[in-house]
Write a structure and sequence with these properties.
With about 280 residues, the chain is α/β, with parallel strands linked by helices. It has a single domain, classed as 3-Layer(aba) Sandwich (Rossmann fold), CATH 3.40.50.1820. It has 13 helices and eight strands. An eight-stranded mixed sheet has the order 1-2-4-3-5-6-7-8, with helices on both faces. The protein is globular. It holds the Pfam family Abhydrolase_1.
């Protein structure tokens, strides 16, 4: 059954498209997609989990049917947290929710997950292929072999900071072909040119500032860090070496590449069920 669609408005007036797979009375699970995806990334995972959770997905700003602010500063982690809180207030104004996120959805989710004012509003966090930028800033300062390996995996981030060329490459299709060589994509990704182009503001608004001047962001929320072993963009060491910041941590290294929510939705669903039952205390 297709999800129901609604709209909520963030603090700065940005409208967000929200999709709900209704299961009244079930625990609420909010899913955040990454770049260059939109909420359709979660369609198969949501169908797997719809009998266990009241599943909610949304297009992050700049993607899908949500508004795409033109100013790069509108894509800062503070604005993204306000988006999450707007959706949270809409779908679960009183109780805590579980959070499932991938790639940039996970990167931005670390911001509310480590926000002191939201510690009692998030019951668990499942993070796939998306580290906290603040945690990454401390990780890269080590200048050891693991940090240098991650820098090699992150080459595209520096490319995204170039003027006009990355936008041109997406519009011409050159970049899609290059990224597909790293990890082939299927034909059902439902991405638009806007998803590719607008989302680069996420990198430009946040990455260098956070890596150069990271904050000490901690959480006691139960975190499951999922690292696909063949991820060409994020190393396992960066994703999982975070017990200093998230002591209530479980780590899973799984087979697969970066886009496991699309390639193996059954595995993602089972990981979420296991985490919420065994770690966060939810019983089916």
């Amino acid at each position: 059954m297709p999800p129901s669609r609604s709209t909520t408005t963030s603090r700065d007036g940005t409208r967000l498209a929200v999709y709900t797979y209704p299961n009244p009375g079930a625990p609420v699970l909010i899913c955040l997609h990454g770049y260059p995806d939109n909420a359709s990334l979660w369609s198969s995972v949501a169908e797997e989990l719809a009998s266990d959770f009241h599943v909610v997905t949304y297009d992050v700003r700049g993607a899908g049917e949500s508004d795409n602010p033109t100013n790069t500063s509108a894509y800062s982690l503070d604005r993204l947290q306000e988006d999450f809180q707007a959706v949270l207030q809409e779908v679960s104004p009183d109780g805590p929710v579980h959070v499932l996120a991938h790639d940039w959805g996970s990167i931005q989710s670390w911001h509310p997950v480590t926000a002191p004012e939201l510690q009692d509003r998030i019951a668990s966090f499942t993070s796939i292929s998306g580290p906290s930028l603040d945690h990454a800033g401390y990780f890269l300062r080590r200048w050891d072999r693991a940090a240098l390996k991650q820098l090699l995996h992150s080459w595209y981030i520096f490319y995204f900071h170039l003027p006009w060329l990355p936008e041109l490459a997406w519009r011409k299709g050159w970049a899609q072909r290059a990224f597909n060589r790293l990890e082939p994509q299927d034909e059902t990704h439902n991405r638009s040119i806007g998803d590719y182009v607008n989302g680069m503001k996420l990198y430009r608004a946040n990455v260098l500032r956070r890596l150069i001047n990271p904050e000490e962001r901690r959480t006691d929320i139960p975190v499951l860090a999922v690292s696909p072993e063949d991820d060409p963009f994020v190393t396992t060491a960066l994703q999982t070496g975070i017990a200093r910041w998230a002591p209530n941590l479980t780590v899973k290294v799984v087979r697969g590449g970066h886009w496991i929510p699309r390639k193996d939705p059954g595995l993602v669903a089972e990981l979420v069920r296991e985490h919420t039952r065994q770690v966060a205390g939810w019983e089916a």
